[in-house]
């Protein structure tokens, strides 16, 4: 069984036991979180229950495994022949969660 959830303005396809890196969630390592914005629930090779926009009563339970910062990205702006250059870096705060039970 799998589900498509929405968190941090992104959508993820998750199955039980998956480790997923999502945008930072409040919670300590080892705490439980519940995703209630479930867009679809389906079975591999079987039927798919798509919500309008959410599936009623569907939830995905997960456990917080790690709070960390992602890889650094470089933002570079330049306008040719004008001597304009700007460099900026960014590291996104992320949370690694392990998907537990999918209710749908």
Structural features:
mainly beta, four-stranded antiparallel β-sheet, elongated
Structure description:
It contains no helices and ten strands. With 104 residues, the protein is an all-beta fold. It has one domain (2-103). The strands form three sheets. Strands 2-1-5-6 form a four-stranded antiparallel beta sheet, with no helix packed on it. Strand 5 and strand 6 (48-50) form a beta hairpin. The chain is elongated and about 60 Å long. It starts with a strand and ends with a strand.
Quick recap:
This protein is mainly β. It has one domain.
Overall radius of gyration: 18 Å
How many domains? The number is 1
Strand content: over 45%
The pLDDT mean sits at 96
Layout of helices and strands, plus pairs?
Elements: E1 2-7, E2 10-15, E3 19-23, E4 32-35, E5 38-42, E6 48-50, E7 59-69, E8 73-79, E9 84-90, E10 93-103
Antiparallel strand pairs: 1-2, 1-5, 3-10, 4-7, 5-6, 7-10, 8-9
